[in-house]
Amino acid sequence: MVDFYRTNKWRHLREVILRRDGYQCQISKRYGKTIPAQNVHHIFPREEFPEYSYAAWNLISLSHEKHMEMHKATSGELSDAGIDLLRKTCRKMKMEIPLRYQ
Is residue 31 part of a domain? Predict the structure, then answer.
């Protein structure tokens, strides 16, 4: 099986999202900081919500540092910051927050 992050479809979409976000970390931008983005983060984790893997609304450009803050270092699961972003996205999209993240 081909690694998701090595597919042409993902690589193209990643570039589209980085371009959309001006190659800037969107979390840092909220605080008035201009920090380059190197990562594109799945707000709804791809492993749990594969149906949102390619949804542009589920993707956000982040710096490496901010991306690491979205995940627990030991398990890779969403951290409190990642869960907070997921909840904010649900409110913005008028979606129900998944039970696990309520």
Answer: yes
Would residue 101 count as lying in a domain?
A: no
Name the stretches of the chain with pLDDT < 70. Answer: 1-2
Residue 4 CA to residue 73 CA, distance in Å, equals 21
Report phi then psi at 39, rounded to 5: -120, 155
At residue 54, φ and ψ (nearest 5 deg) are: -110, 15
Whole-structure pTM value? 0.93
CA dist 90 and 67 (Å) reads: 19
DSSP bridge pairs for 41: 60
Please list, in sequence order, all residues whose beta carbon lies within 8 angstroms of the beta carbon of residue 32, skipping any fewer than 6 positions away: none
Q: Is residue 99 part of a domain?
A: no
* Within a domain: 51: yes
Query: From CA 87, how far away is CA 22, in angstroms rounded?
Result: 24
Distance from chain centroid for Cα 8: 19
- Residue 28 has what pLDDT? 97
